[in-house]
Each structure stands twice: as C-alpha cells, then as structure tokens.
Amino acid sequence: MNSTLAAPLSEIAHYYLTQVDVSSLNIFEKAWMSWYMWWDNPVLATGLMSFIMHEVVYFGRCVPWIIIDAMPYFRRWKLQPTKVPTAKDQWECTKLVLFSHFTVELPQIWLFHPIAEYLGMATYQLPFPGWKTMAWQIALFFMFEDAFHFVAHQALHYGPLYRNIHKIHHKYSAPFGLAAEYAHPAEVLILGTGTIGGPLLYCWFTRDLHIFTMYAWIVLRLFQAVDSHSGYDFPWSLNKFFPLWSGADHHDFHHMAFTNNYSTSFRYLDHIFGTDKKYHAYKARLRAAAAKDREALNQKLMAETEKEGQEAERIAEQSGYFGSKIAAKVQ
Ligand SMILES: [Zn+2]
Ligand SMILES: [Zn+2]
C-alpha cells in the first residue's frame, strides 16, 4: 500500500478521516475541524482558541458600554448617574485587566486541554452536541456558578481576604463594563473556579461534555459579568422580563452599598438567605415616594447608602480572623 511510504497520520487527522462523516458537518463544525487540523496540536489549538475567545468576547462586549458611557443620552438609565467613568478610569482598568489576563489566565487556559482530556471532555471531536443538550448543561453551569459565587464572594468580604484580595474589585463604587474583571489575580482564580468548576465536575461524573458547550457557557458568563457591571438598567434589560435574573440593577447596588447582593446571575440565593434586605428596603422607599419626588429621594438614598457602604467597608477591612471585629478600637 502507498500509505506505508507516506508520513504517519497524526492522531487528529486519523480521527477525522476514520470517525467523522465530513460531508454531514455544518460550516462551524468544518471551521472547527480546520482549526484543529491546522495546528495539529490539540493543546496549542485549544489553548489559543480559549485565550483569543476570552479576549475578543470580553473586550468586544465592553466596547458598547464604553460608547454608551460617552453618550449623555443614555445617562437617564444610569444607576448612579453622577458617576460616569472617565477615559482615564477606562484606561487604568484596561491595563490591570490585560495584565491579569496575560499573567494569570493565559497559563491556566494553557493547562486546560490536558485537564479536559483527563476528564474525558470532547475537544476536537465532531459533531457538536445538539442545542437541547447544550441548553440544559449550560443552565446547570449557571446555577452552579451562582451558588459557588454566592459563598465565595461572601468569604471574600471577610477581613483578611477582603484586605488582601477583594478590595481591588471594590475600587469602583459605581462600576462600568470593563471593571467586571478588575480584580486581584487570586480573586480571578477563586471566582473563576465557579465558572470552570461546574463543567469539570459535570464531565467528571458523566464523561459527556463537549468543550464547545463549555465555550458557549463561558461566552454567556462573560456577557453576564460585563453587563452586570455596566451600571445601566434599561427598560429592556433581561431582569425586567426574567425577574430571577440579577442584572446590573442588583450588582451595582453591591458596589454602592458594599453589603447585600452577593450572587452573580440570579437573585434567589440572596433572597433565601436574606442578604438583599437593604436592597429591597431601598427600592421600597423609592416606590413609595410620589413620582415627582423620586429623583431627589434617589439622590439622597444613594448618598446615604454609599456613606454606610464606606463604613461597612472600613469595618470589614479591619475585622480579624473568625469574625472578631477590631474596628471599634481602631479609629
Ligand atoms: Zn464584593
Ligand atoms: Zn463586581
């Protein structure tokens, strides 16, 4: 046979030739196949694709918010309208985010393929899973991440962890899109576990997950993270149609008040555990006010809430191990 004279086929090429009916693949699956064939090195192909996807989606999603911040027309929907980020704020934020992407996330993304393979996750394999399978797996990852974040985020508000790690993310009491990943590298690592931990655990138990589903989940999670930091609550925001969804309205309050609203995607855990009482009291006072007084009241409440938030931050920062507070002693 002639093939004995040719160079041996790589594992990937051999797989596509023998296991895949290429004529039945759609355009995205063909592109996927070409990508893996081109690199002919799954670790490199997966690592590069993950990194590029993360950068393109994260910064791509931030661009509309930067434009919106620059247009006074949109100020009417800004949750804290007097606090619009300056170009300098946006640039400072971009620099730290890029630094953390290249130093913390790049190596992690590179390690991902070996871990995924070890857990039996499909990577270069085709075809992609059906949309129904993807939809319920992604719903599960959303719920897992939300619960993980709810617990880990509260832990990060605990004295030593707050002082050394989470304080960086709270630099902005009125966040903006780019600030979503403005955080200490350790925070990126801790909270990132909630994002990739769900798919990895799921894969560990079921051995039935395609990395394409995980990418789709990460894209949605990035949208959620950037949007919840955007600082805008529109009449068409998702939380207006899906009341369990947190949205910017929920997370913006966390940055302003420092306490309350620890979840990411959903509102139900904060509701069940009573960590949204201050938020609801704030909203109730606004609703109870006459329409003509609402704007002035909102300004007053925002100033009060932020002042209380600064005090809560001071106490959290000075609290010691096991919750013992030394704030009273430290003036
Ligand atoms: Zn926080
Ligand atoms: Zn935040």
TrEMBL record:
Subcellular localization, as worded in the UniProt entry: Membrane
GO cellular component: membrane
GO biological process: lipid biosynthetic process
Fatty acid hydroxylase domain location: 139-275
GO molecular function, one term: oxidoreductase activity
This protein's name: Fatty acid hydroxylase domain-containing protein
Record's keyword annotation contains RNA-binding: no
Keywords: Membrane, Transmembrane, Transmembrane helix
InterPro entries cross-referenced by the UniProt entry: Fatty_acid_hydroxylase (IPR006694), Sterol_Desaturase_Related (IPR050307)
